[in-house]
Write a structure and sequence with these properties.
This protein is an alpha/beta fold. It folds into three domains: about 5-75, Roll (Ubiquitin-like (UB roll)), CATH 3.10.20; about 90-210, Alpha-Beta Plaits, CATH 3.30.70.20; about 210-570, Rossmann fold, CATH 3.40.50.1780. It is built from 18 helices and 19 strands. The protein has helices at about 20-25, 80-95, 110-115, 155-160, 195-200, 210-220, 250-260, 270-290, 300-310, 325-340, 360-365, 380-390, 415, 425-435, 475-485, 520-535, 545-555, 560-570, and strands at about 5-10, 10-15, 50-55, 60, 70-75, 140-145, 170, 175-180, 205-210, 225-230, 265-270, 295, 350-355, 370, 375, 380, 455-460, 465-475, 495-500. A five-stranded mixed β-sheet has the order 2-1-5-3-4, sandwiched between helices. Strands 11-10-13-16 form a four-stranded parallel β-sheet, with helices on both faces. A four-stranded mixed β-sheet has the order 12-19-18-17.
């Protein structure tokens, strides 16, 4: 490898040819500010905040796209550089809607943080205020172009990571904007509501649709019985909103906080994750034994489902007919639980705490109801729950530990790992293997489907059968996997797809990661938190869940029964490709 000699702020070093000045500076622990830059995703030098002074150059250079050269001498903090960066920030802020106190990203905004660090005070420029109408047509995402700084991050993640391309730059000059095809509303295009654009946005131009007031109203209504379910990935991320280490399991504190907020019952989505495995595993065995459509593809991720409905009409029949765990829980809560508790289903208000913004969209789908009752009434993200806890002035790190309520609160380790990519596959294999062999197998660590590789493949030997499986996370990876299946290059029995990179642990509703370079580390720590919970559980297979067994014995007879299909299964819709 060819090495290049350079000097940065008086420090001589050697770096590989092709390295950027920004990367070289980082290797020396020299911090250069960035705003539009994201390593491996968005390196365009658009914002110019990362400018540096290069000896012999006529003008300041954007370090994020400037390759090193032999003998280069760089200065990163001269008066000229500091003044230029401050001026750049002032120009960005001149066009930005500066309503920080009422912004969803207040105190968690990269623009705000850099402005403070650079000593930006009054804005000397009169910006062109374009007064965009805030787009609230999406069921999940609010788009406010008045706050957009045109960094292009959202466009990059939507195109390159998610393969959706629902948004792009349009127009020129001061009229440049980020918008959809033909300036349609976000709710009218192929956006899959995954929320990865929200997490990547450095400001508040994109945010989830806030349903906290809707939930506060329900909690304040004595005539409504309000129950809540908590998704697996929430318990290893919620603590971050209160300064706790990444990956900390705050399940007990979360339950106690929810009860303090006034929920009548606190249940667990892990229960319905176990239920999903019984239904989906039985569906897989049925297709294997009866010549059904293969591969069977999971249906837990609503962002993935909408992506498939828009882009892969020929695979809709491959999708499992199972509702997601969120929707299964709501259906069971308003039927089985309603009967057991002797409550009119119309008086039950089901709230979901989810790591996923697309769950808001999913809850509003017309298919997601039973006998006139919607499965889920409101969905809150992890961030929204943290907001409610703070509004209630609850000292979350100091709160006592609570436990889930019975009937819909018990779960196994298999239900827990749903939150990480490969988790649904591993949970399903644990149950399917026991059913096929008729044994209580002890070797249940299917590590081949774990990890952050975009597409994972494995062949699992169960009894006398080789079960071929694949796992994809991030819809661009799903795109590539389906192309391989379609061409005949790959052949599987069962495929898991999660819409977000890393699965639910990195869902669009999870805590914002301010230092984007730590994203992979954060995903790993959250995933490890889930696997640690799984390992600590006495029961680690979904079919061992006693409350799920009781549900079948008392109410639905068996998995895939007529009643189970009525409550827990659904269908999908072909959608326009634009």
């Amino acid at each position: 490898m060819e090495m290049v000699n350079i000097t940065i702020d008086g420090i001589k070093t050697q770096v590989p040819s092709g390295t950027t000045v920004l990367e070289a500076a980082k290797s020396l622990n020299i911090d250069i500010p960035t705003l539009c830059f994201l390593k491996g995703l968005n390196a365009v030098g658009a914002c110019r905040v990362c400018v540096v002074e290069v000896q012999g150059a006529r003008a300041l250079q954007a370090s994020c796209v400037l390759p090193v050269a032999e003998g280069m001498v760089v200065k990163t903090a001269t008066a000229k550089v500091r003044e230029a960066r401050k001026g750049i920030m002032e120009l960005i802020l001149a066009r930005h809607e500066r309503e920080c106190l009422t912004c969803s990203r207040n105190l968690n905004c990269e623009l705000q943080k850099l402005s403070e660090e650079m000593g930006v005070g009054e804005i000397p420029y009169e910006g062109s205020n374009l007064n965009y109408t805030v787009d609230e047509t999406s069921a999940a995402i609010v788009r406010d172009q008045n706050k957009c700084i045109l960094c292009g991050r959202c466009i990059s993640v939507c195109k390159k990571v998610q393969g959706t391309g629902a948004i792009d730059f349009a127009r020129r000059g001061v009229k440049t904007t980020v918008t959809t095809a033909f300036d349609k509303s976000l709710g009218d295009v192929k956006c899959i509501n995954c929320g990865q654009c929200i997490k990547i946005c450095p400001v508040g131009a994109l945010r989830e649709k806030d349903d906290t007031e809707k939930v506060w109203d329900a909690l304040g209504n004595d005539k409504v019985h309000v129950v809540v379910q908590t998704a697996p990935a929430v318990r290893v991320a919620l603590g971050e909103e209160f300064g706790m280490p990444v990956g900390t399991n705050v399940e007990g504190k979360m339950i106690a906080a929810l009860k303090r907020l006034g929920f009548n019952k606190v249940f667990d989505t892990n229960f319905s994750a176990d239920l999903t495995i019984l239904e989906e595993g039985t569906e897989l065995l049925g297709r294997l034994n009866n010549g059904g459509k293969l591969p069977l593809i999971t249906s837990c991720s609503p962002g993935w489902i909408k992506f498939c409905e828009h882009n892969h009409h020929d695979f809709i029949e491959n999708l499992s007919s199972c509702k997601s765990p969120q929707q299964m829980f709501g259906a069971v809560a308003k039927t089985y639980y309603a009967e057991k508790a002797e409550i009119d289903p119309k008086d039950i208000f089901v709230v979901s705490i989810m790591p996923c913004t697309a769950k808001k969209y999913e809850a509003g789908r017309e298919e997601m109801s039973v006998d006139g009752n919607v499965d889920v009434d409101a969905v809150l993200t992890t961030r929204e729950l943290a907001k409610m806890i703070k509004q209630a002035r609850i000292n979350f790190p100091a709160i006592e530990e609570g436990t889930y309520d019975s009937i819909l609160g018990d779960s196994t380790g298999a239900g827990v790992i749903f939150g990480a990519t490969g988790g649904v596959m591993e949970a399903a294999l644990r149950t399917v293997a026991d059913i096929l062999t008729g044994e209580d197998l002890k070797n249940i660590e299917y590590t081949a489907v774990r990890g952050m590789e975009g597409i994972k493949e494995a062949t699992v030997r169960i009894k006398d059968m080789d079960v071929k499986v694949a796992v994809a996370h991030g819809t661009a990876n799903a795109d590539r996997l389906l192309d391989r299946i379609r061409s005949g290059e790959a052949n599987y029995h069962f495929v898991e797809v999660m819409g977000c990179p890393g699965g639910c642990i990195n869902g669009g509703g999870q805590p914002i990661i301010m230092d984007k370079e730590k994203t992979e580390e954060v995903k790993q720590l959250r995933a490890q938190g889930l696997y640690t919970i799984d390992q600590s559980r006495k029961r680690r297979k979904s079919h061992e869940n006693p409350e799920v067994k009781a549900l079948y014995d008392e109410y639905m007879e068996k998995p895939n029964s007529h009643k189970a299909h009525h409550l827990l299964h659904t269908h999908y819709t072909k959608r326009d490709r634009v």
